[in-house]
Task: inverse folding
């Protein structure tokens, strides 16, 4: 049962254009969403996150949009650069009854982004 | 400051053997989580430890176990290895309050032959 889905396994975008990576989730209890970027032979690196009380969060070239009614979020990268070529993972968390800070992350299967020079 | 350190980086084991992987979190981080990454499955949560106690566990068989020491270092053990256990095992650490503050190590690539 894949609760977080990234339906596009790969995406190719021209350098300088906008990259849009999509993510859908099924568990309405998820309240915090994160994007990670992963290069080969390295661990995932945290990029940007968004709480369910917001619909947009921006950090430099990266913007995450959340549509709670559609259970959909997207990551926009503008402008795309060759160094952005990597696998991008969407992740989500449930609230913790005990309010500990480190709830488990439920990840999507990833989208491989290739930026074409 | 040093990041999350996982050892060894690569490991080849035979079916039926057992293996122990190690993770040293960022200094000051008290929570350590383990994930398994396989092609087509993404990252699957294994378990999470905080102050030497397992707080969360994913849907993996009992062959997968772990522990955390008083210095927050964690080990993961897989017994009776199966071919399907071949994967990249990732460890992540965070502060107690860290929503989104998860820092991953580079992982241990386990190959079972």
Result:
């Amino acid at each position: 049962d894949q609760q977080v889905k990234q339906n596009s396994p790969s995406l190719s975008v021209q350098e300088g254009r906008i990259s849009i990576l999509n993510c859908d989730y099924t568990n309405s209890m998820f309240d915090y969403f994160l994007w990670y970027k992963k290069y080969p032979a390295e661990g995932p690196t945290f990029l940007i996150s968004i709480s369910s009380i917001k619909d947009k969060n921006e950090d430099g070239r990266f913007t995450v949009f959340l549509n709670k009614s559609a259970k959909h979020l997207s990551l926009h990268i503008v402008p795309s650069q060759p160094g952005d070529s990597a696998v991008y993972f969407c992740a989500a968390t449930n609230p913790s009854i005990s309010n500990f800070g480190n709830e488990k992350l439920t990840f999507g299967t990833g989208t491989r982004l290739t930026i074409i020079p | 400051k040093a990041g999350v350190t996982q050892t060894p980086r690569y490991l080849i084991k035979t079916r039926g053997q057992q293996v122990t992987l190690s993770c040293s979190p960022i200094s000051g981080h008290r929570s350590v989580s383990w994930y398994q990454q396989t092609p087509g499955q993404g990252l699957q949560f294994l378990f999470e430890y905080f102050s030497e106690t397992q707080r969360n566990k994913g849907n993996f068989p009992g062959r997968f176990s772990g522990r955390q020491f008083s210095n927050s270092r964690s080990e993961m053990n897989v017994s009776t290895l199966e071919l399907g256990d071949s994967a990249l095992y990732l460890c992540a650490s965070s502060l107690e309050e860290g929503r989104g503050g998860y820092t991953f190590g580079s992982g241990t690539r386990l190959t079972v032959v």
User: Anything to note?
Assistant: DSSP finds no helices and eleven strands in chain A. Chain A has a mean pLDDT of 90. Residues 24 and 70 of chain A are 8 Å apart (CA to CA).
